């Protein structure tokens, strides 16, 4: 079957085509559905299909377009991470006991997408409890990377990244606390934006069967994924803004404009190494190439700065605070084992594994002291962003790796240039932005020598999401962006 001319277009391009009546919403929806039916047997990105309602919404969108209505997402097919509540569809988070849970109401972000005219095609696959950079569970099986079916698409928004790379619509919704937006974007060669903490309200992105009420979950965010940087801004504008049930009673969102609109005006700090976890040659090479090209365009590029916070101490702090949050939901037997293990740790053991174990057994007093340390880090970042507009650094240390479903993540290993490292230590790279709630935009930078996507994250100042997003757009415009996988040369 011939490849549709619309399958890999951006949301911005498709919106223009819809307005110009070059294509209809029903045609775009049918095209995306046909691609899912043709290819998803191999990829398994879409774990819950909602095609009948999608076609109905597409017909309504075409009616609105015919009446001259204009909405941000009108007529655009959208996929949604399985962890978001969509009324009438299962929300399981990959937990088998919750396989029959169906919420009665949409998540707030889903309501906003629908109100903006977006057409929900279905839900995308996740790891159990959203707790891995691979996307597999007993309910829905394993999602594969469209660039190499034997490798992970990333996680926990791995189904969303694979869907985008496969041409299943131009937009998807995901979430992030340990890189779950940025890591799958990196592994599948697409774009994602981790918003500033609490910029997008998370009501309805809720573990089943808990009620969908306004709640701040430490460091956790929801955000947009796409095949183009400009599309991230389009979807972010729809998702962002306070929840009308709480902060929205007294506040409204007014984000600052991007600091600059030309590459020559940006001041960028480029980091490609971590004292505890290096990036491999493919990732470092892509960053080096980008830094050189930015410099040639007039961007002021620095490779080090005394203002940059202590990466090692920040990573240790992140591991403790992350596992303090996640560990609250672990079964009693796991926590009991963690307490025994933590009690046996030497005070001199500052490995990231040890810090994660300590975090699982945190007291509230210990958390309060670490929260003070985090406030100090935020102050350091504010000082840094007086001199720089953005920090460019790795998202993960290697391109996508083969599936590894061994049950204990602490015993898994990731090979970086011939040396094995502890699998969860990879948290250090996404954690650089997560810990202090900073916005970070994941962008692709082409393919490795093995044909796998590589990319970077662009970290910006707190609540200045438009600055890294604009830099991402400028880089895409000058140097290119998403490349479709070869398996989709149909």
Describe the structure.
- This protein has helices at 11-19, 25-43, 51-66, 108-115, 158-165, 182-188, 229-239, 281-296, 311-327, 332-343, 352-360, 364-387, 428-434, 466-479, and strands spanning 46-49, 77-81, 119-124, 136-137, 141-142, 171-176, 191-194, 221-226, 267-270, 300-302, 390-393, 413-416, 419-422, 440-447, 453-459.
- The protein is α/β, with parallel strands linked by helices.
- The strands form 3 sheets. It has an 11-stranded mixed sheet with strand order 1-3-2-6-8-7-14-15-11-9-10, sandwiched between helices. The protein has a two-stranded antiparallel ribbon with strand order 4-5.
- The longest helix is centred in the last third of the chain and has 24 residues, at 364-387.
- The radius of gyration is 21 Å and the shape is globular.
- The termini are close together.
- The relative contact order is 0.13.
- Keywords: Hydrolase.
Beta-strand percent range: 5-15%
Instruction: Report the count of strand segments.
Output: 15
Percent helix among the residues?
25-40%
Euclidean distance between termini CA atoms = 6 Å
Order of helices and strands: HHEHEHEEEHEHEEHEHEHHHHEEEHEEH
Q: Radius of gyration, rounded?
A: 21 Å
Biggest sheet: strand arrangement? 1-3-2-6-8-7-14-15-11-9-10
Low-confidence stretches: none
Spatial shape: globular
Tally of individual helices: 14
Q: What is the typical, i.e. mean, pLDDT?
A: 96
Structural class: alpha/beta
- Main sheet characteristics: 11 strands, mixed
């Amino acid at each position: 079957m011939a490849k549709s001319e619309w399958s890999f277009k951006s949301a911005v391009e498709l919106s223009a085509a819809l307005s110009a009546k070059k294509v209809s919403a029903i045609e775009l929806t049918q095209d995306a559905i046909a691609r899912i039916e043709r290819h998803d047997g191999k990829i398994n990105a879409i774990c819950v299909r909602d095609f009948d309602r999608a076609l109905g919404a597409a017909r309504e969108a075409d009616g609105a377009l015919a009446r001259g209505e204009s909405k941000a997402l009108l007529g655009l097919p959208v996929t949604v991470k399985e962890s978001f509540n969509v009324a009438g569809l299962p929300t399981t988070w990959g937990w088998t006991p919750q396989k029959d849970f169906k919420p009665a109401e949409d998540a707030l972000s889903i309501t906003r997408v629908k109100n903006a005219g977006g057409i929900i095609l279905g839900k995308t696959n996740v790891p159990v409890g959203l707790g891995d950079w691979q996307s597999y569970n007993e309910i829905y099986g394993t999602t594969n990377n469209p660039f190499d079916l034997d490798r992970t698409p990333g996680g926990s928004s791995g189904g969303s990244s694979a869907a985008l790379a496969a041409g299943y619509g131009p937009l998807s919704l995901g979430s992030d606390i340990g890189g779950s937006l940025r890591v799958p974007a990196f592994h599948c060669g697409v774009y994602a934006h981790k918003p500033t903490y609490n910029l997008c309200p998370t009501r309805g992105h809720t573990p089943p069967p808990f009620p969908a009420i306004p709640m701040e979950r430490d460091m956790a965010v929801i955000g947009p994924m796409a095949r183009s940087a400009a599309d991230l801004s389009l979807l972010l504008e729809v998702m962002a803004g306070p929840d009308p049930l709480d902060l929205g009673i007294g506040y409204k969102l007014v984000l600052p404009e991007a600091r600059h609109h030309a590459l020559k005006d940006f001041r960028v700090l480029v980091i490609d190494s971590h004292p505890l976890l290096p990036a491999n040659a493919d990732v470092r090479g892509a960053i080096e190439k980008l830094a050189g090209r930015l410099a040639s365009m007039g961007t002021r590029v620095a490779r080090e700065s005394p203002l940059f916070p202590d990466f090692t101490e920040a990573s240790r702090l992140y591991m403790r605070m992350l596992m303090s949050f996640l560990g609250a939901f672990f079964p009693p037997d796991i926590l009991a084992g963690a307490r025994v293990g933590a009690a046996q740790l030497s005070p001199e053991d500052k490995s990231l594994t040890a810090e994660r174990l300590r975090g699982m057994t945190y007291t509230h007093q210990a958390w309060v002291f670490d929260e003070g340390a985090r406030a100090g880090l935020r102050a350091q970042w504010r000082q840094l962003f007086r001199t720089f507009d953005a920090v460019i650094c790795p998202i993960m240390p290697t391109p996508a790796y083969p599936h590894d479903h061994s049950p204990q993540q602490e015993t898994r290993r990731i090979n970086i240039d011939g040396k094995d490292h502890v699998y969860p230590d990879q948290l250090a790279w996404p954690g650089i932005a997560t810990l202090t709630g900073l916005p970070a935009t994941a962008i692709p930078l082409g393919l490795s020598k093995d044909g796998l996507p590589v990319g970077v994250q662009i970290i910006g100042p707190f609540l200045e999401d438009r600055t890294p997003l604009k830099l991402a757009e400028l880089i895409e415009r000058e140097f290119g962006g998403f490349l479709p996988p070869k398996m989709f040369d149909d």
